[in-house]
Amino acid sequence: MLKRLLDILLSAFGLILASPVLLTVMLLVWWGDRHSPFYVAPRVGRGGQTFAMVKIRSMVIDADRKGASSTSNTDRRITPVGQFIRRYKIDELSQLWNVLRGDMSLVGPRPQVQAGVDLYTSRERDLLSVKPGITDFASIVFADEGAILADHPDPDRGYDQLIRPGKSALGLFYVENRDVWADLQLISLTLMTIVSRERALEGVQKILHRLNADASLIELAGRRKALSPGVPPGAEQLAQQESHISG
């Protein structure tokens, strides 16, 4: 109940505070191609229920029919204005509306498309036990997702190999250890990412340490080691959790 109250108050305040930026960017997106500045797409929420997620459009019209689901920084579907929008995460501000409606929470695992959820292991399906969020541990740790996938020939495969294992492990840890204080810290660190990603990552590591996270997960959050295909950092913990459930 307290989490929902905070979601309502902070999302309403955020929409009011961000309205000048949102309106300006919406006008620029419309001016670029004379199409709607909104991208409304189905995403899977709590309990596997689908909802319409609202984003400020950063790509060309019908981009989801013209390429991979995962997007790199060099994706040609991103518009010039879209590059600016993505750099400063402005496309996510509109999701405050989804939070206000109750589809999402300010903090929680990022919502996925149905095709992505269909690939979930039985353990990963626990990510659907809470409302999806605008930010969480993984959103900060993998804030450079576009850069990670920039040189990969197959962005979707690159996402599954390099990002998904660690992202799922961090998401599952949040689901099992969430508290209001951690939520407030993660909101603050998400804003910090714009100014200093290094300090934001250090903040995430401190939260994980306070919540007694596995050492491999804390190491992953520091992002000091390059991600590599096969068994990215964090995958070991996810595999252990899966094995424990199966046992």
Structure description:
- The chain has 247 residues and is mostly helical.
- Helices cover 53% and strands 8% of the residues.
- It contains eleven helices and four strands.
- The chain has helices at residues 2-33, 80-87, 96-101, 114-117, 137-141, 145-148, 155-177, 180-195, 197-210, 215-222, 235-246; strands at residues 38-44, 50-56, 105-107, 133-135.
- Strands 1-2 form a two-stranded antiparallel ribbon.
- A hairpin with a 5-residue loop joins strand 1 and strand 2 (50-56).
- The longest helix has 32 residues, at 2-33.
- The two termini are 34 Å apart.
- The model is unreliable at 243-247 (pLDDT under 50).
